[in-house]
Amino acid sequence: MRPEIAEAYDTRATVSGTTFDDVMAEYRRRSDTAVAHLAGVEGIVYDRPSAQRLDIWGLGDDARPVFFVVHGGYWRMLSRQDTAFMADVLAARGVATVAIDYGLAPATALPEIVRQVRSALTWIYRNGGEHRLDTDRIIVGGSSAGAHLAATTMVPGWQESAGIPQSAVRGGLLLSGLYDLRPLVHAPANEWLYLTNESARAVSPALGTAPSTPTVIALAEREASGFVQQSTDLHQRWSDAADSRLLTVPGRNHFDVFLDLAEPTSELSRALFSLIDSTARTDDAVPTQTVPVTGAHS
Q1: Which of 269, 258, 274, 157 is nearest to 208 (CA)?
Q2: CA gyration radius, the chain
Q3: Which residue of 14, 16, 17, 96 sits 20 to 30 Å from the alpha carbon of 49, by its own alpha carbon?
Q4: Rounded to an integer, what distance in angstroms lies between the CA atom of residue 176 and that of residue 220?
Q5: How many other CB atoms are there within 10 angstroms of residue 247's CB atom?
Q6: What is the pLDDT along the chain (298 residues), one digit of tens a residue?
Q7: Strand partners of residue 283
Q8: Which InterPro entries does the entry mention (predicted)?
Q9: In terms of Cα–Cα distance, which of 226, 228, 216 is closest to 261?
Q10: CA atoms 58, 59, 62, 64: torsion sign
């Protein structure tokens, strides 16, 4: 354990215990409210070996673009039921939300978690048409550990063996994430991740080939320093391969910034709308919105 690394990656130290508990409860409360009156399908088993499940919300009569969202929780807590609070906002714009579960650490090793999330993405690409999803318009996203896992679906190199095109993911909204996991070998998180230098490298999307799809790399104003540095570094690495925007959301912390996706006029929601709109075909394109960006951008 290295104290300076432990401090840099201690998200809980950035908020009070009461704030943390309140935000965790708000995830579930707002998710329940968001999906209460939406058409959807719950509990689809997307991966037979692990029996992990996903939900699809905001279905309509037309083929809808997809926001494939992965929950955070430092790879060891939360679920898909805590991660649908944006579903009604997106449904109002004709977009479906896919929220997924994955096995939690320490019972599930991180390489297996990555495999499961990629399996979920593969399932949606192959089977989404049966649920009137436009599988040529998939945007992935997530917060914290969920941003890391969403990023692992964006990088090239795994799609061919899964039988899907490298272009299956059309863009990403990565929020408050970690992308080079090697520092966690020396942080408290390794008490449940059991990473080695080799395994951490293998599951680090920042260390592989950059994707050729647009990305919004976002973070809250109040983040632990390691998360700020990792977002900045990923933006610098990926901006050479494709459009990458680095967005800092003022007045938010590592935990409550994710809830901005439940507000249709928030800067984070506008960034997501812009990514979705960028996938539209020329015959059904809708005007994109200008996305104000705080921080560097390419």
Answers
A1: 157
A2: 18
A3: 96
A4: 7
A5: 23
A6: 799 999 999 999 999 999 999 999 999 999 999 999 999 999 999 999 999 999 999 999 999 999 999 999 999 999 999 999 999 999 999 999 999 999 999 999 999 999 999 999 999 999 999 999 999 999 999 999 999 999 999 999 999 999 999 999 999 999 999 999 999 999 999 999 999 999 999 999 999 999 999 999 999 999 999 999 999 999 999 999 999 999 999 999 999 999 999 999 999 999 999 999 999 976 554 443 333 333 333 2
A7: none
A8: AB_hydrolase_fold, BD-FAE-like_dom, GDXG_lipolytic_enzyme
A9: 216
A10: positive
